[in-house]
Design brief:
With about 290 residues, this protein is mostly helical. Helix content is about 75%, strand content about 0%.
């Protein structure tokens, strides 16, 4: 008898979904949210910034699926456009902090005389609360998405540096690294050929946690008025503006809160699944 031919989707369902159901669920949910953000111009029924005072604080209707806010703006349109802000901030913060932390961590972990200097600088950066840094930067340069991304990225870099440094300290004592040094292999080649591959798996997992934390921090900053400008639809701005009318129009807080919670949950669950898959000890037990 000939072996049954399985499609790539069936193979994925048999392996990934069966062994890591929560991670698969998180990935599917995150993909759905990303698709909603990308298709916001087509899914948003009304301009999210269009004012309609005669339609303010209306409950969900056939025209306004999730109701309207105090300015008559469509909550559904603002919700799907707000997903863009959270995903952009989370992705860019994770990308920048991982990129900078990887370079600094590899150099600090491999060059011994730089280790103490760099790590003391990282300790100083870790002492700066991200919220206070963002408020200070907004006071100096004004509220913008760029300011929020920079303010959230700075406190995340030392955490990545410490993670990469720990990996490098263990890898540089391996026999294959010592052999590369003994034959005169240039330092950049050692770092990128022998050290970097060992840093990738933990950094992938760390990136998911940084992304989720950045989205939550952005919402907190916007709620406090130190995040994205009020004219930009974001989940934090929606919650901040709707809290005054919570008793008469709870949907202004309910839907952005659900969107933020589901997005962070999806990213965290996906990160847990990646950790279980990429960690050799956990993968072996499973």
């Amino acid at each position: 008898m000939s072996a049954a031919i399985t499609s790539p989707f069936q193979e994925f369902r048999r392996t990934a979904v069966a062994r890591y159901p929560l991670a698969a669920l998180g990935a599917v949910l995150l993909i759905a949210i990303v698709m909603a953000a990308l298709l916001a111009p087509f899914m948003g029924t009304i301009d999210p910034t269009a004012l309609n005072p005669s339609n303010r604080l209306k409950p969900p209707t056939a025209q306004n699926w999730l109701g309207t806010d105090q300015f008559g703006r469509d909550v559904w349109s603002r919700l799907v456009y707000g997903a863009r802000v959270s995903l952009i901030v989370g992705s860019l913060v994770a990308l920048f902090s991982i990129g900078l932390g990887l370079i600094i961590g590899m150099v600090a972990g491999y060059i011994r005389w730089l280790d103490a200097i760099v790590m003391r600088m990282m300790d100083g950066l870790m002492a700066i609360p991200g919220i206070l840094l963002a408020i200070a930067m907004v006071s100096l340069s004004g509220a913008s998405i760029t300011t929020v991304i920079i303010a959230i990225t700075i406190p995340e870099i030392p955490r990545v540096v410490r993670l990469v440094r720990a990996v490098v300290l263990s890898v540089r004592e391996e026999p294959y690294v010592e052999s590369a040094i003994s034959i005169g292999t240039p330092l950049p080649k050692i770092l990128f050929r022998h050290v970097l591959p060992n840093c990738i798996p933990p950094l992938i997992v760390q990136a998911t946690y940084i992304c989720a934390s950045a989205m939550l921090t952005e919402a907190i900053l916007s709620f406090l008025g130190a995040g994205t400008p009020p004219i930009i639809p974001s989940w934090g701005n929606m919650i901040a503006e709707g809290r005054i009318f919570f008793q008469i129009a709870p949907w202004n807080i309910l839907w952005p809160g659900i969107g933020l919670s589901l997005t962070i949950l999806a990213v965290n669950v996906l990160g847990d699944g990646l950790r279980d898959r990429l960690d050799p000890k956990i993968a072996k037990r499973m």
